[in-house]
Amino acid sequence: MNLIALPAFTDNYIWMVHDGARAIVVDPGDSAPVIAALESLRLTLAGILVTHHHADHIGGLAGLRSSLKGPVYGPAREDIPAPYTPLRDGDHVELLGLGFQVIDVPGHTAGHIAYFHPAARGERPVLFCGDTMFSAGCGRLFEGTPAQMHASLSRLAALPGATRVCCAHEYTLANLKFAHAVEPSNDDLATYTRWCEQQRAAGISTLPSSIEQERKVNPFLRCAEPEVIQSARAHGAVSESGTEVFAALRRWKNEFR
């Protein structure tokens, strides 16, 4: 598996997986970077995976149809441009000989899904999570509820620690600034921040992250940690329940600068 992050727009990544001859892409909001990569690497586009309906994730579908030699998969409960194959939690798809498990992760949008490829042939697992999880952060709740998003993130956090987390945006440094405000005593957070700052200073992506890393630094996955609970209580959480802590953090993050 060759895994490539294709930059798009200001801070999007369109993820591409290829085997040297064929490729699949995830959330092609813009067709131009995909077409350029296909031509440069002399690849055939064998399939497209879509996580949710936002324009910066589906806007390139029309421009890729003429060169597509395979299916488009997307969430069954969202309005994805046809034709496409609708998927639900527990479904399984195979592209390039790679199997992907479908996980419902509502919260950012009502029908958001993620794609998980388990470890195979000595390679680490891969998660394409769209805008549900970012490194050190999570997506805004445009359509779902705090309870839904907390449950969705908990499902992703339970995946194997070695799983590569392929988020759809380069929001890491901004998310880390907020994470430090939530959990200032977290040494793992300080170490990861230094590494991410070095990456961005060199013009290199901070992604993919890993589930193990996110468990250590992502405040939205750490709602049971005492310092996170304390910060959430200081910002409106009325109890120590995971959902209430998450909801307070998300409200705080929406206004954080």
Summarize this, please?
With 257 residues, the protein is of the alpha/beta class.
How do the helices and strands line up, and which of them pair or pack?
Layout: E1 2-8, E2 12-18, E3 22-26, H1 31-41, E4 44-49, H2 55-58, H3 61-64, E5 72-75, E6 85-87, E7 92-95, E8 98-104, E9 113-117, E10 126-130, E11 133-134, E12 137-138, H4 146-157, E13 164-167, H5 172-182, H6 187-201, E14 209-210, H7 211-217, H8 226-234, H9 242-255
Parallel strand pairs: 3-4, 4-5, 5-6, 10-13
Antiparallel strand pairs: 1-2, 2-3, 7-8, 8-9, 9-10, 11-12, 13-14
Helix pairs in contact: 4-9, 5-6, 8-9
Biggest pleated sheet: 6 strands, mixed
Q: Report the mean per-residue pLDDT as an integer.
A: 97
In DSSP terms (H or I, runs of 4 or more residues), the helix count works out at 9
How much helix is in the residues? 25-40%
DSSP E strands, number: 14
Radius of gyration: 18 Å
Order of helices and strands: EEEHEHHEEEEEEEEHEHHEHHH
- Basic shape: globular
Query: Which regions are unreliable across 5 or more consecutive residues at pLDDT < 50?
Result: none
- What amount of the residues lies in strands? 15-25%
Strands side by side in the biggest sheet: 1-2-3-4-5-6
Distance between termini?
38 Å
The helix/strand class is alpha/beta
Tell me about this structure.
With 257 residues, this protein is an alpha/beta fold. The strands form three sheets. The chain has a six-stranded mixed β-sheet with strand order 1-2-3-4-5-6, with helices on one face. A six-stranded mixed β-sheet has the order 7-8-9-10-13-14. The N and C termini lie far apart (38 Å). Helix content is 34%, strand content 25%.
